[in-house]
Amino acid sequence: MSTSRPVALVTGASSGIGKVAALELVAAGFQVIGTGRRTANLTPPDGVTLLDLDVTSDESVTALVAGVISRFGRIDVLVNNAGIGSAGAAEESSAEQARNIFDINVFGVIRMTNAVLPHLRAQGSGRIINISSVVGIMPQPYMAVYAASKYAVEGYTESLDHEIREYGVRALLIEPAWTNTAFDANSVRPDQPLDVYATHRQVFEEYMADAVETGDDPTLVAKAIVSAATDTKPKLRYPVGRTAQVATMRRLVPTRLFDRQLRKLNRLPA
Q1: 2 part of a folded domain
Q2: What does pLDDT average to over the chain?
């Protein structure tokens, strides 16, 4: 079953930003394949085909991408949206826990890119759209491991983009701020919590819950994804909502003042 429509493959499309992005891409004229870890009992949104995928498994990724190309004849856009949040002081996460977060947020992106890129190069066109975060461009106390994973996605994507432009393919970044999804509820908590950080960790979790509840509508992020997928002259970075303000502050505000404001926002001692 091939299709004349452009095909978008969206990981982590069973909920949150991925689900809304899938619908926005359908509205923009794409044939959309969305993935999730377990999709059998989910009702796919109109116009979206849901398939199982584990981005931490080489075998799962390889089989999924080959199956999509065989079934639909092409892939034009890959949206690497699957990811997981984490909260807690840096010292409270074991190396194993950090490795598991990176396996989804970073190596999952790399696995999917490596599987799809040969096809995009062969057809001479395509977009790889990686979901970063506002904490991929600024520090966030009590999210060190998650921030590190998003900084890694930023560096990987920008470097990759330089390598593949000559083949008609672009690698692009979406940078959401706090977004009204289940991000806080689904975030990993530290596996080796320490009493010394307990008070500040609790303060941060309350801050995160409030920031997510009052955060940007995921539709804003989804529309940025569509823009990245369809713009004739795409930008490397698509800051979403409040991220644009933060990016401007980091460029213009003196480092000492930015540091002071960050600590104040997180209720940390000066």
Answers
A1: no
A2: 94
